[in-house]
């Protein structure tokens, strides 16, 4: 139920094991929403450092990003860091022929039923197994199986300008939205996606989002030393970040965001969404138990939540101290160490401090 990243990864894997799934999608085509850029960062899924190679080699799922990330510029209120290395990938999502969901759709052989009105309850009666992959946690919540930890909003735009497609930028500066951040992901040398992401906390609800967006946009133009031209806008509000209590109930599997793919620290969810789809298929094929396979992902989610609560205690002065460290030789080697999972260790170290709160 749902032909997004997790649902399609599940369908492809089932087919590879000789099972023909029925795929139901509420929209009239794949990726039928605004176009945006998303990324997969290597540091977030260690020890896997190359997610594109991982899905190809281990799962026969082929993803074509628009570029690999070879340099990342990070700006705080008054500091800047430059991190070099193989840091991840950038890809299209939404209504674009190269969007990941369209790429996956081309690898699925079974028919996809578009404009589906089938409810979960109806599918449950008709099929042996149901994979809930609707991307929004609605059914998971309705079944009292979802713990929402926070909701976030993302205000973004497609912009044109002069970009290095291998170099995205991030802004860690709470002057625009409290505990939020901004990023610019180039999709080509002339087009990029500029986004301001922020938690829906009361201190942000009181702010004029359009005014804050305007200030953020001016800062980005200043930092990049060029006027950016906005070609389209989007605004996602109340996007839930949380995790299911049980990954499998009876013969129903919760995958993607319905599992808890969206990580609270920075809001990345693509990698886990794909993996949960694959793991649900493994279970259905008798190749593993979904609850067990997803245990490491559940731990990553909880670690990511610890990190989110920790960064929320920081202010702009702290961020000005941290950002130069990221760009130092020491910071780079921690971020890029192949086997050392810096975020897991940081979460481990912070956990007692955060739970005492
Ligand atoms: C603006 C934005 C930026 C993001 N940036 C990043 C990023 O940079 N990196 C990253 O890793 N993650 C990012 N994410 C998160 C990432 O996109 C999600 O975690 C991931 O797509 C979740 O996959 P999914 O399969 O759960 O849902 P989706 O890929 O969203 O797919 C859900 C599908 O289910 C369909 N559907 C919904 N309801 C029904 C129904 N009742 N019946 C049938 N079909 C239904 C939908 O139409 C959709 O096709 C971002 C999210 C947003 C919104």
TrEMBL record:
Pfam families: NAD_binding_8. InterPro entries: FAD/NAD-bd_sf. This is FAD dependent dehydrogenase. It comes from the Bacteria.
